[in-house]
């Protein structure tokens, strides 16, 4: 049995010793890149993606040690156990079967003796039928007008993954439906959404597993009040995505056109493959496009499951992330897609990875002595170059995932500037930035000196087809899970979000008391909290 804390193993100490050796000048990236066959020996193809890690600060010995770490931490076996339906979410005694939502296999996936694929297929068929009915005008709002706007009401994992996919595939939408996101309880979010919709042709999709999420319920009630003020029957403009038996699944308490079930074996940040993403994406893009996305994700899942560690893209990426985080001391990771449609990838992976791996306790509740998780951020290139690449090149270094798309969606625009097209100019920068970060440049003027030795990887997609968006999503999901297996943490719970919520509950009670009694002066609050509560009601500080 592998130890809970990987730092207690001799191999962890070997990696620290090797990391010290990699700090020597002869192991600067500009020298590592001179090795023959550097790219061929440090790039992988699989699951529909190309992954180049030749500009990571590794050599053959690093890879050997990291593969030994993968074996010691039983990464492949644990990933297979997850996909089989074993309860890898130990703290909540749940399976983690997001991969089952995009499985088209006839082989059963058993959870407590029941094949979960049967109910998943049922929900898929429900989504297919409903999306066809809405898009054809068979199902309409309370005035008989066809739906032209869909508002996703949900926060965190209830919208971030869907927003990434809908943004990536927006150019495939046929214009029948416009998609909007109401995630934040901030009234500005609500105000901007309602200013962009026609209430008579709007369908609200309220997404909450428990149907108790404070922000989502506040927005749902705001939406109901708004629709009723327009003289519309909110129930004829509402669908819910929630767990079976929740308040949102109760037609008496929350009447709706339909309720789509989500499952307790799928966490929010892994849920875009389920009805959480499937309902809005099928309405916006058509069910066929959503299913193509699922099949691309399934291909990457099978690659992660069946490919040996040395050739496994997400497993290799996870090992390199651990190497950068725990042995080279990089606390942050940037994701820079050189494709504007992928603009919402970084925010989604930010939640996926940081909520999954930002842990201080092992899966069995023991305090860890190692750093887990990374600060994830990003912005599309070349915009990012004009935003924070000054820091990337000359300030505090951080690893970067560069993402390139070979074939753009808009090939018809081919005007030339400096003898190249826009897409070629984009690729000129995509190729240049990793090289500049790795090799650097010396100069007598310190302000113009670039130290280099700054690691990056490059991921290539053939195009922005739905299948490739699914592959990319599943790559980052599998990588996140593999990282957690190395660190011995639970990638599927998120107790870290609860403390702030519980304090907000107390503040909400104080605000409610003031609403009921204008003379109440927040006597129960501490002095600092009282100052802010008083400021809220006085309207000034």
Protein model, in words:
It is a single chain. This protein is an alpha/beta fold and 541 residues long. 43% of the residues lie in helices and 11% in strands. It has 18 helices and 13 strands. The protein has helices at 10-22, 29-32, 38-41, 60-72, 75-84, 116-136, 160-168, 187-194, 214-229, 275-285, 287-306, 313-327, 345-357, 389-394, 422-439, 466-487, 498-516, 527-538, and strands spanning 43-46, 49-52, 110-111, 114-115, 149-153, 178-182, 202-207, 238-243, 258-262, 332-338, 375-378, 400-405, 456-461. The strands form 3 sheets. A 6-stranded mixed β-sheet has the order 1-2-13-12-10-11, with helices on both faces. Strands 6-5-7-8-9 form a 5-stranded parallel β-sheet, sandwiched between helices. A two-stranded antiparallel sheet has the order 3-4. β12, α15 (422-439) and β13 (456-461) form a beta-alpha-beta unit. α7 (160-168) runs antiparallel to α13, α12 (313-327) packs across α16 (466-487) and α13 (345-357) runs parallel beside α16 (466-487). 45% of the residues are buried.
């Amino acid at each position: 049995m592998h130890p809970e804390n990987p730092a207690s193993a001799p191999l962890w100490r070997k990696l620290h010793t090797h990391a010290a050796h990699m700090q020597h000048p002869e192991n600067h990236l500009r020298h590592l890149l001179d090795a023959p066959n550097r790219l061929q020996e440090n790039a992988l193809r699989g699951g529909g993606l190309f992954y180049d890690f030749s500009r990571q600060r590794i050599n053959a010995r690093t890879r050997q040690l990291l593969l030994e770490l993968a074996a010691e931490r039983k990464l492949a076996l644990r990933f297979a156990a997850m996909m089989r339906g074993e309860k890898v979410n130990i703290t909540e005694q749940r399976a983690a079967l997001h991969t089952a939502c995009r499985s088209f296999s006839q082989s059963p996936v058993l959870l407590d003796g029941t094949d979960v694929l049967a109910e998943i297929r049922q929900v898929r068929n429900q989504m297919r039928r409903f999306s066809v009915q809405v898009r054809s005008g068979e199902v309409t709002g309370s005035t008989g007008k066809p739906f032209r706007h869909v508002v996703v009401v949900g926060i965190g994992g209830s919208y971030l993954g869907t927003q990434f996919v809908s943004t990536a595939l927006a150019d495939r939408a046929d214009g029948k439906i416009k998609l909007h996101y109401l995630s934040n309880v901030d009234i500005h979010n609500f105000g901007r959404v309602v200013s962009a919709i026609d209430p008579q042709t709007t369908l609200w999709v309220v997404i909450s597993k428990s149907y108790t999420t404070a922000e989502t319920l506040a927005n749902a009630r705001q939406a109901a009040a708004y629709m009723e003020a327009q003289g519309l029957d909110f129930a004829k403009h509402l669908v819910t995505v929630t767990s079976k038996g929740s308040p949102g699944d109760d037609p008496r308490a929350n009447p709706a056109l339909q309720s789509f079930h989500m499952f307790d074996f799928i966490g929010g940040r892994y849920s875009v493959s389920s009805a959480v993403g499937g309902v809005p994406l099928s309405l916006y893009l058509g069910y066929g496009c959503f299913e193509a996305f699922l099949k691309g994700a399934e291909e990457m899942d099978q690659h992660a499951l069946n490919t040996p560690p040395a050739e496994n893209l997400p497993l290799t990426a996870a090992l390199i992330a651990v190497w950068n985080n725990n042995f080279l001391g990089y606390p942050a990771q940037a994701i820079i897609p050189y494709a504007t449609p992928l603009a919402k990838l970084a925010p989604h992976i930010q939640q996926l990875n940081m909520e999954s791996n930002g842990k201080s306790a092992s899966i069995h509740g023991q305090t860890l002595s190692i750093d887990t998780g990374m600060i994830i951020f990003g912005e599309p290139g070349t915009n990012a170059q004009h935003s924070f690449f000054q820091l990337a090149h000359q300030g505090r270094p951080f690893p970067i995932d560069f993402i390139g798309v070979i074939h753009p969606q808009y090939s018809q625009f081919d005007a030339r500037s400096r003898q190249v097209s826009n897409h070629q100019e984009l690729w000129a920068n995509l190729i240049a930035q990793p090289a500049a970060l790795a090799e650097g440049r010396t100069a007598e003027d310190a302000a113009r000196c670039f130290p280099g030795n700054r690691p990056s990887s490059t991921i290539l997609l053939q195009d922005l087809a739905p299948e490739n968006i699914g592959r990319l999503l599943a790559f980052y999901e599998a990588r996140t899970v593999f990282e957690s297996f190395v660190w011995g943490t639970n990638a599927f719970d998120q107790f870290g979000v609860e403390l702030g919520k519980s304090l907000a509950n107390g503040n909400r009670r104080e605000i409610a008391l003031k609403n009921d009694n204008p003379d109440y002066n927040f006597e129960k609050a501490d002095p600092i909290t009282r100052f802010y509560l008083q400021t809220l009601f006085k309207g000034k500080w």
